[in-house]
Write a structure and sequence with these properties.
mainly alpha; flat; about 110 residues; about 80% helix
Amino acid sequence: MNVALMIGALLVSVLLLTWLLKVIKTSIQTAFFIAIIVFVVQVASGVGPQEVFQAVAKWLGSGLGSLDKWLRNWGGNYKPPENFREKTKTMLDLGQMLVQMLISESAN
């Protein structure tokens, strides 16, 4: 086996491992920070975690438009519109035509 390939693979593995550990550490810190904030709000004002999360959900629903509906429908019994497949096929055909046009333009 090539030594340079082995060293490169080891270097990439170490870089990926350190990146993954940093992401996990940041995620745990963020979750802990949010838990502390909710606890402080609960102790200071008597508002429970449910009220805090309902306020956040209300804010997300009014501020970000369809995100609230998407989150409510996600995993539920939401069905796409009847013509969903037709629209998807039309968009794929349009994309293929665009790629063909670009290829033909670059060949000329």
